[in-house]
Amino acid sequence: MSEKVYQKKIMLIGPKYAADLKEAGGVTVLFEQLLEDMRELGVDHLAINSNKNCYRNIAETFFIVMKEFLTNLRRYDHVSIHGTANHYIMIAPFVIFFAKMFGKSVSLRKFAGNFNDIYEKSGPVKQGLIRYVLKNADLSFFETKYLVEYFKKFNPYTFWFPNVRRHPEGMAPKSDFNRRFVYISHLKDEKGTQELLEACQKLDDSFDVKIYGPVHEAKYTPEYVAQYNTSYEGSLTPKEVVEKLQESDVLVLPSHREGYHGIVIEAYSAGRPVLVTNLPAIAEIVEDGETGFLVEPKDVESLVEGFYKFSVENYPR
After folding, report:
1. Alpha carbon 10 to chain centroid distance?
2. What are phi and psi of 228, to 5 degrees?
3. CA nearest 112: which of 146, 139, 152?
4. Residue 63: C-alpha distances to residues 66, 99, 124, 175 (Å)
5. pLDDT band for position 226 (50/70/90)?
6. Where are the beta strands (DSSP E) in 42-97?
7. Is residue 5 predicted with pLDDT exceeding 60?
8. What confidence tens digit (pLDDT) does each residue in 167-224 have?
9. How many beta carbons lie within 10 A of that of residue 36, not counting itself?
10. Which of 138, 145, 172, 221 has CB atoms 3.0–4.6 Å from 246's, for a disulfide?
11. What is the end-to-end Cα distance of the chain in Å, rounded?
């Protein structure tokens, strides 16, 4: 007679899709992908939505999340918190306190790649909350290797959990290089949108650069973008992202700060090289001159040079 395997019941707290899928960021896509995997594996779980875009304000987000958490806590063995720095500071301290009170184990999964900067620039209260969360979690997962090394001093049970994406079905073969570049991300300064526009203005007419993504800063209107020898094409659903990557030759993302940006992983899954900024996390997953080219952040001239580095001769096939 086969032995019955005990399976823990897991409560997850993280950002689920809002009504408009075109507003979904990489963190939300990753969390939804994990939930899909758990459903396929038949894992007994409850997902509590911490996406502030699904509520009227941050206060409502906090109270509804905590109500669901406390109402269901006794029924689950393990609590898994998935989020950004705000989740660690606002929600995680309360979740860990009550979970430990009821003898539940807790794991943390931190998205994005600048948590060390946030910690170092925070005041003593915020730093204290972050240390409390990290020290009292049973397991901590970070998206990048350098964050694992940085935060291991607070908890030895700290591990690497990189950004992942499903391999797209019916992947298009790599095309001939026709200088078709695509930007897919939020339109805002910290994503390098302004540097990208200024770089586009310096490119010759053989380049075709298209820009997709939700507008997060009002100045980035279609008319404003059009002044820079490029075009804004609107937002995309997660499914449309892969289609646009396959229609293009190269992904460009001149961000000022990143973890393992999901769109870079998706570009790889679509067989496309990348033109990205030389940031600690990005440098872990981009081999300069092989899987793409690295340029300096906030540097228009470096970005322009990066565009011209791609050629018919070196384009991967």
Report:
1. 23
2. -110, 30
3. 146
4. 5, 17, 25, 50
5. very high
6. 45-49, 78-83
7. no
8. 666 555 556 889 999 999 999 999 999 999 999 999 999 999 999 999 989 999 999 9
9. 11
10. 172
11. 53
- With a CB cutoff of 8 Å and minimum separation 6, the contacts of 39 are none
Output the average pLDDT for the chain.
89
For residue range 109-166, what is the model confidence (pLDDT) as tens digits? 988 777 888 899 999 999 999 999 999 999 999 988 889 999 999 999 999 988 776 6
pLDDT reported for residue 166: 66
Q: Name the residue among 263, 150, 142 with its Cα closest to residue 213.
A: 263
In sequence order, the 6+-apart residues with CB closer than 8 A to the CB of 60 are none
CA torsion 75-78-84-88 (nearest 10°) is 90
Using alpha carbons, select from 91, 99, 111 the residue that is nearest to residue 34: 111
Distance CA 210, CA 44 (A): 43
Locus of tokens 């001149």: 254
Q: Which two tokens stand for residue 68?
A: 């669901």
Contacts of 143 (CB under 8 A, 6+ apart): 110, 111, 112, 113, 160, 161, 162, 163, 259, 260, 281
E strand or H helix that includes residue 269: helix 262-269
pTM for the model:
0.73
